[in-house]
Amino acid sequence: MEAIKFLKYILSRIGIMIVLTLFSAFAGIVLIPALVTVFPSSTSAFKSFMTNSNVDSFIGFAVMLIFFLRLFYDDGKRHAAYENWSWVNITIVYLLMLLVYFIPAIFRDSFSQEGKGDIFYKVLYYPCIWLNEGVGMNYLVSVILGIGLLLAAAYCFYLIAYKVYVHKHPVILKSMKSFSAGKTDNKV
Fold first, then answer.
1. pTM (predicted TM-score)
2. Closest to 178 measured CA to CA, from 51, 170, 9
3. Domain positions in the chain
4. What pLDDT shows up at residue 46?
5. What is the pLDDT of residue 140?
6. What is the chain's Cα-based Rg?
């Protein structure tokens, strides 16, 4: 990838991650409880289960996971089709996404005494609350594990999409191998 395209790709994926976090919080806090009120009163046990904050947080996590899987599956297929795939670039993107998501969590305790930033942290890390409160993990561990699970699954889907596309179109693999063989011949 060219440097400008790569920078645009990084910034767009970080932006999509932030928007998906906000949407997953909206889905878990507003949409699911609103949809549960439509069910009849005979399903009160189901209603109470679905309005539990840990379940809502897990639903937000699942929403974010579904969008991530679809997005990065499409990226893997597109990068294979246009032959601009680089595992180094994609790993850098995932690591930067991890850092952008995790670094603000480190500073949460500095804002907790004054009450500033409570809404920010509750919304930004809403998809990870189920790990913190439901499973009982440390806050920082739950944040890094939550985003790590999302990004690891997205990375796997990216690689699967790439492999499937290359398997269906072996000409791409041959041209990539000949290109890499040409690079090694020039170094000798």
1. 0.81
2. 170
3. 3-187
4. 83
5. 92
6. 21
